[in-house]
Design brief:
The complex is a heteropentamer, with two copies of chain A (259 residues), one copy of chain B (280 residues), one copy of chain C (291 residues) and one copy of chain D (307 residues). Chain A has 259 residues and is an alpha/beta fold. Chain A is built from eight helices and nine strands. In chain D, helix 5 links the parallel strand 6 and strand 7. Classes of the chains: A alpha/beta (259), B mainly alpha (280), C mainly alpha (291), D alpha/beta (307). Chains in contact: A-C, A-E, B-C, B-D, B-E, C-D. At the B-C interface, helix 1, helix 2, helix 5, helix 6 and helix 9 of B face helix 1, helix 6, helix 7, helix 10 and helix 11 of C. Strand 1 of chain B pairs antiparallel with strand 7 of chain D, so a sheet runs across the interface. Bound molecules: adenosine-5'-triphosphate (2 copies), the ligand Cc1ncc(C[n+]2csc(CCO)c2C)c(N)n1 and magnesium ion (2 copies). Chain B: It comes from Rhodovulum kholense.
Chain lengths: 259, 280, 291, 307, 259
């Protein structure tokens, strides 16, 4: 973790809208090292998505500096460093599941044979092996979400950006995918930025948890997780786990107006 | 030759300016300035080509001659405008669109009728006006009534079809919500389905504006009193007064665009909530 | 197939209305003629006369049908399908101009839409004029277009096709602008994260997602092309084509001939639009977008 | 062979039989001409076509030709195969119209598109306003057919002796039920269906020679048509591409047309020209032409063709 | 709880689709007493939504019998017995938030003055007091969801049907709304049918938890909760609570294919 992969210093972002301006990010500073798994948690509208979009060069900070792999996010994007999973599945309805997953490979010019092999591999990874030839609307919402995760995993992105990827899934499926994601991350050493609303999920997955607070979006707390890399599901009942979860909850609560 | 080169030079300069303007922030004045500049370019190129290539005035007059003609013929142009646009096109537009929306609401209640009427309606809508106009002139006489009838025939089906499509635009969940309230048919219609249909209805109404004006003008070619835009156009072509013809065409384009713009403005006011009106 | 019964019902209702209207509209002529001849007519005589006049105000359906058959099927059976008196021949003339005009118009409309979507200057300055262009009465300028093109040596099919292209480019341009803009922000962002080039975004995202819009507007454009071809036929000396038939019928007060040409045109339009619909169904099915 | 394009004023019909006969019988070939005949129609202004270079020779009525000349299009009459005017106003007797004095307050159908000049001149002669003012007539722009009379939307409509009049008859109205006012009889006849070319052509001897041969062959065609009306009508029918014309109507039309061409050998009679110009100049407040035309006709071609 | 408000006996529901029929509900029997709070939990596609729709007479069972308040669901609907919160917010975009909430009141013919008062009250209940004049698209997803809940609470429905109403909200807001809902239920004695993917939520809210299993949709387990009516948030750490949660999780797991 010597050279950070992502280095944000005093990042500000102000949206100009019809009726006045909205400060979405304010003075956000954060270092993410190679191979880290960072979760972002915070109330709705606090700027989680906006920060991920800045990293992927889909938005541009209006203040401060942000670098990825030592270069600007724009250049990093040209190097094809990113795998992005959006909040909604966003599959193209005119392509089958397999061809949706193949799309980024086509764009990045992978050889034909390799494309097929990679598609097959990630389909299996997300338990959709038999569904490659279905169209998106022939799948349930949860399956679509898994296909969109597979699409982001199919090519060799350095950095995986995931915006509430498991929001629409039930608890059991979610647990299962959490385990899979953790295994993949451990195996490949990718750097992951992960947005979630679920405290246990954030604690279970991350090496670092960023708690954000709204109006204007700022970082309220950064928690480095002492949990080991090897994490069975029942680690969630250990005192260390509950301890971190408690700290996250407190940080979150501070951002809300209740009680 | 210098005229031609000058015109092309102006074109290049105006385009470069427009490209530069396009990078600026979107404002109201810019929204008017850019098309105005483009239109001015068209006129300059036209003037330059007509003069440079010595095109006879009885084939295509230059814009300057047309402008001069407009200035001297305002009373005639106004009388023609009233006859064709106000009496023929507008009344036909109101009748045809009203009938289209009401019929759509009536048909909407019967899937049987919908399945039967739509294909037949599309077929009837495909009857070319150049064929139906003389028939309607024969039926409804020479004055504006027959022009209005042609307009009604032209706008009815586009509005009907769009309204029908719009009435089915409310999604299943929104309808189910109404059902859980046990809302009556009329309540569901006025509070859900008509508002949800508005973007589609306006689509039809916008298409209908251009159709209405064209229909009223074309119908005058097949018999009319001795005023009206279509009458003037066909008569003055025969007299080789092409400047007058283009003066009428200019009025038609202006009136048509203004009509379209007015309906589009209503659309923005009524369907402000639709993503297509919020975006950009 | 579920639609057969409803369509049949509607068609029957229209036929009934039509016969009624024919009797009502044509009765005055019958009565006038009788009055001139000093005869008294029974109701039955009036009705039967109104349905078989030579120049009725509104020809009865069977008269139109008979005329249609006489000028198409019957002539084809005699092997004179392409004689000048056959509607098949005139329909073919109109069809070729329609198809050429449609191809030019649809192509131009698509190109214009691509330009508008990719170039802000074009978007802001051209669109209002595209709308204005459609408010110009085409019937008024068609003769001038023909004369101008004639004077530079272009005659025959092309001038008509240009007029029909003028009418058909607009719906395609409008529909395609909408269609090419239909991918939402997320779809476009996804492409960005992969570092896709403009060409890739166009072919892999914008183009496929515009398909439903394309076909809908192609249907409108096809009908408009046909109208354009017919309009373009009037000032060519009205020699050939359905437009010429309409005009000649109109000039000689041959209402039956007008109506049969009219229906010939509508049938042609229905066939062409149906063809586009078929292409639409096949394409969308192959793309998995038809459910 | 030299190429000549002729623009007709109206659709293919016996009104133009002479030219079709010359074409069909090889009279043009004999003169080493390759003639193309372009039919006209309701939307075609022959003078616009000739201005655009789409034709070498056109057929037009003198009023609109002179009006166009005043507008700056230098067209010249080179021959006049029609001696008399076929125009008239046809009214239903039951409307009570008996003479031009009855016109005020009536609705009259008139052809426009450059064909309104004779009517306007006539009304100016009679002192009847046509602009809708008190004591005037209501003018309708008449379409392509005789429906306004049959549907009783107009009291009188414009007809040609050789065409529309017979359409009214064919529609089932007996001649006794009609009353007609021929422009010839009213003393306001203007010349119809002359041959016109652009002035510049007459400066080129080669072009003049071509026109001479064209007029000679055309007049031969006309005289043949007058002598053989039925065959001439059949030739016209053969050239009708719309397939809309009927044999009966064309034969009858040929018969009527022959009466109008009968008195002409092709050369313009200066007296007819004088009468036409006087009629047009006397148009009251809004005359068709405002100045005495200069050089609007020439005998150069007919002199060479006929002698 | 003598006469059940909702009585389902052997309810079957088969959807006829283009390619064959889908059995969405199979042999579902369930009694719900007046004032009960019943949660439905189960994997995606097991028929939870379908069952709620049957109760609201939006679908009609193809077998078995179903009665509401002793009458058919159709008649119950005519009595305006239902408040339904759909999975998505489903606000009308052409009405402001306040006018969206007022819509059912207009339809049911409440007096004008009362309409305004009620709208104000429920807006406060869901913490949207200042937002009545905004349009739906001017609010974040979570706020829209709360508005749709307010809309269902604005009128006096006997039976509240809620289909994953809190799916799009973060944990803190969710906890807050859970408390509010429970208080409202205790105060008004409404009968509630509630669909959720969250086990703690189901246990925290319900007097009865129905665990469903898919293919074909049937009831796997019905758990009557022994928890008291008065439930502070920290009841979730008591052994009774965890005990029930465990039973629910087991029931759920049985319906999945993993391990
Ligand atoms: N394009 C935009 N224009 C104007 N304001 C915006 C835009 N995008 C986001 N915002 C505002 O910026 C703030 C941060 O939004 P963001 O989407 O990052 O929130 P979030 O933390 O992802 O919330 P959620 O959990 O609901 O997804 C919000 O107040 C939002 O209203
Ligand atoms: N209109 C319909 N036509 C055909 N099948 C349907 C229809 N509605 C639902 N189904 C099917 O019925 C089954 C039950 O669907 P339902 O929506 O009730 O599931 P659910 O339990 O609410 O799932 P989720 O948690 O994803 O909302 C599913 O297999 C679904 O595919
Ligand atoms: C629109 C229109 N209407 C009438 C005429 C007049 N016209 C000139 S020649 C001719 C033939 C007579 O049978 C007729 C009717 C025209 N040219 N254009
Ligand atoms: Mg977000
Ligand atoms: Mg559901």
């Amino acid at each position: 973790m010597k050279t950070p992969v992502i280095k944000a210093e005093n990042v500000d972002l102000v949206f100009q809208t019809g009726d006045g301006s909205v400060q979405a990010l304010s003075d956000v500073s954060l270092d993410v090292g190679r191979g880290e798994f960072v979760s972002f948690i915070g109330p709705s509208g606090c700027g989680k998505t906006t920060f991920l979009r800045c990293v992927a060069a889909l938005e541009h900070p209006t203040g401060g500096s942000l670098s990825v792999n030592g270069m600007s996010p724009d250049n990093a994007r040209k190097e094809r460093s990113y795998g992005y999973v959006f909040q909604a599945a966003g599959l193209y309805p005119w392509r089958t599941i397999a061809r949706n997953i193949r799309l980024p490979l086509e764009i990045m010019g992978y050889p034909k044979a390799e494309q097929a092999a990679r598609v097959q591999k990630v389909l299996e990874l997300v338990d959709l092996a038999g569904f490659g030839n279905k169209f998106p609307w022939q799948l349930s919402g949860g399956m679509q979400q898994r296909a969109s995760i597979a699409r982001a995993l199919a090519f060799d992105a350095d950095i995986l950006l995931m915006d509430e990827p498991f929001g629409a899934l039930d608890e059991i499926v979610r647990d299962h995918l959490n385990e899979q994601l953790l295994a993949l991350w451990a195996r490949t050493g990718k750097t992951c930025l992960f947005v979630t609303h679920s405290i246990p999920e954030a604690v279970y997955l991350s090496t670092k948890i960023v708690v954000m607070s709204p109006r204007p979006g700022r970082i309220a707390d950064v928690i480095d997780s002492p949990l080991p890399k090897e994490r069975p599901l029942d680690i969630r009942d250990t005192p260390e786990f509950l301890e971190i979860a408690h700290r996250v909850r407190e940080g979150l609560r501070a951002g809300h107006a209740y009680d | 030759m210098s005229w031609v080169l000058g015109a092309l030079g102006f074109w290049a300069a105006a385009w470069a300016l427009n490209v530069r303007l396009a990078r600026l922030r979107n404002t109201r004045t810019l929204g008017l300035l850019m098309p105005a500049l483009f239109g001015l370019t068209l006129l300059v190129v036209w003037e330059g080509l007509v003069r440079g290539l010595n095109v006879p005035g009885v084939i295509l007059p230059p814009p300057s001659a047309i402008g001069a003609r407009i200035a001297t013929s305002l009373p005639v142009l106004w009388a023609d405008f009233v006859q064709t646009f106000v009496k023929g096109a507008l009344s036909g537009y109101v009748l045809g669109c009203g009938a289209g929306v009401l019929s759509a609401i009536a048909i909407d209640r019967s899937p049987f009728l919908q399945r039967g009427l739509l294909p037949v309606g599309n077929f009837i809508a495909a009857l070319p006006i150049v064929g139906t106009a003389p028939i309607l002139v024969m039926w409804f006489g020479f004055d504006w009534q027959s022009k209005a009838a042609v307009v009604v025939a032209m706008v009815f089906f586009p509005v009907l079809v769009n309204t029908l499509q719009g009435l089915s635009a409310a999604d299943a969940m929104q309808r189910d919500l109404m059902k859980t309230y046990s809302a009556s048919y009329l309540q569901t219609l006025t509070k859900l389905r008509l508002p949800a249909a508005m973007p589609f209805i306006f689509n039809g109404l916008k298409i209908a504006t251009t159709l209405a004006l064209i229909g009223a003008i074309v119908a005058e070619f097949f018999g009319s009193p001795i005023r009206g835009m279509g009458f003037r156009i066909s008569t003055e072509v025969g007299r080789l007064a092409l400047d007058m013809v283009w003066a009428e065409i200019a009025v038609a384009a202006l009136a048509g665009s203004a009509f379209y713009g007015a309906v589009a403005a209503c659309e923005r006011a009524v369907t402000f909530w639709h993503p297509s009106q919020r975006g950009l | 197939m579920r639609s057969v019964l409803p369509i049949l019902t509607v068609v029957l209702a229209i036929l009934a209305l039509w016969y009624g209207a024919a009797v009502a509209l044509n009765a005055r002529w019958t009565l006038d003629q009788a009055a001139r001849a000093g005869q008294e007519l029974t109701l039955g005589q009036i009705v039967s006369d109104t349905l078989q006049q030579e120049r009725p105000k509104l020809p009865a359906p069977h008269q139109v049908g008979a005329e249609l058959w006489k000028t198409t099927g019957a002539m084809a059976l005699e092997g004179r399908a392409f004689s000048k008196r056959s509607l098949i021949y005139h329909g073919w003339v109109t069809l070729s101009a329609t198809l050429l005009g449609f191809a030019i118009g649809a192509g131009a409309g698509i190109l214009l839409a691509v330009g508008i979507v990719h170039n802000r200057a074009m978007d802001r300055s051209v669109m209002p004029w595209a709308i204005a262009s459609q408010t110009i009465p085409i019937l008024a300028i068609a003769p001038m277009i023909i004369v101008v093109l004639n004077s530079i040596g272009i005659t025959g099919l092309v001038p008509k096709a240009i007029i029909s292209a003028y009418l058909s480019f607009f719906p395609v341009a409008v529909g395609m602008v909408k269609g090419l803009r239909s991918p939402d922000a997320m779809d476009l962002d996804l492409m960005k994260t992969w570092g896709a080039r403009a060409g890739q975004v166009f072919w892999k995202l914008r183009w496929p997602s515009s398909m439903p819009y394309l076909f809908t507007s192609l249907k409108v454009a096809m009908a408009a092309s046909l109208v354009g071809a017919i309009v373009g036929e009037l000032p060519t000396g009205a020699i050939r084509g359905l437009g010429a038939r309409l005009l000649a019928g109109s000039y000689y007060g041959q209402t039956v001939q007008i109506w049969s040409a009219l229906f010939g045109a509508a049938i042609l339009a229905a066939l062409l639009v149906g063809l586009v619909g078929l292409a639409q169904r096949i394409t969308l099915k192959r793309m998995g977008m038809a459910r | 062979a030299d190429e000549v394009t002729l623009q007709l004023k109206w659709v293919t019909q016996a009104q133009f039989a002479g030219y079709y006969v010359a074409l069909d019988k090889g009279f043009y070939d004999e003169e080493d001409l390759d003639v193309t005949i372009k039919p006209g129609g309701p939307d075609i202004a022959p003078s616009q076509v000739i201005a655009g270079g789409g034709a070498d020779v056109m057929i037009d009525w003198m009023p609109s030709a002179l009006a166009a000349r005043e507008k700056g299009l230098p067209i010249v009459n080179i021959a006049q195969p029609y001696k008399s005017s076929g125009m008239m106003l046809t009214c239903l007797k039951e409307t009570g119209v008996e003479s031009p004095e009855d016109f005020p307050g009536r609705t009259l159908g008139v052809w426009f598109f450059g064909n309104e000049y004779p009517f306007l001149s006539w009304m100016a002669h009679l002192g009847i306003p046509t602009d809708g003012s008190e004591g005037g007539v209501t003018v309708l722009k008449q379409g392509f057919n005789v429906d306004p009379l049959l549907q009783k939307q107009a009291d009188c409509i414009s007809t040609m002796t050789y065409n529309e009049y017979w359409q009214v008859i064919d529609a089932g109205i007996a001649p006794e039920e009609l009353i007609t006012f021929k422009y010839e009889d009213q003393g306001v006849a203007t010349l119809e269906d002359g041959l016109y070319v652009l002035e510049e052509k007459l400066d080129d001897p080669a072009e003049v020679d071509k026109l001479v041969r064209f007029v000679r062959a055309s007049m031969k065609g006309w005289k043949w048509a007058e002598a053989n009306p039925e065959e001439a009508a059949m030739i016209v029918l053969d050239h009708d591409e719309t397939g809309a014309q009927t044999e009966k109507h064309q034969i009858r039309m040929m018969g009527e047309v022959a009466k109008l061409t009968a008195g002409s050998n092709g050369a313009l009679d200066p007296e007819d020209y004088r009468r036409t110009v006087d009629t047009l100049l006397a148009g009251g407040s809004d005359p068709v032409i405002t100045r005495e035309p200069e050089g609007a006709w020439t005998h150069v071609v007919t002199d060479a063709a006929l002698h």
